[in-house]
């Protein structure tokens, strides 16, 4: 399931979805 789509910089620096932030910080996935 696609949660969020944006530029790489925006995804990693300021994700709009809490699930995205959890995934890139290693708390999910």
Topology:
Elements: H1 8-13, H2 18-24
Mean pLDDT: 93
Terminal Cα span: 13 Å
| Domain count | 1
Stretches with pLDDT under 50, minimum 5 residues: none
Number of helices: 2
Q: How many strands in all?
A: 0
Radius of gyration, whole Å: 8 Å
Question: What would you call the structural class?
Answer: mainly alpha
Helix content: 40-55%
Pick out its properties.
29 residues, 2 helices, mainly alpha
At a glance:
The protein is mainly α and 29 residues long. The protein contains 2 helices and no strands.
Question: Would you write up a description of this structure?
Answer:
- This protein is mostly helical.
- It has one domain (1-29).
- The protein is built from two helices and no strands.
- It has helices at 8-13, 18-24.
- The longest helix has 7 residues, at 18-24.
């Amino acid at each position: 399931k696609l949660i969020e789509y944006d530029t790489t910089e925006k995804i990693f620096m300021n994700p709009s979805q809490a699930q995205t932030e959890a995934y890139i910080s290693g708390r999910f996935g």
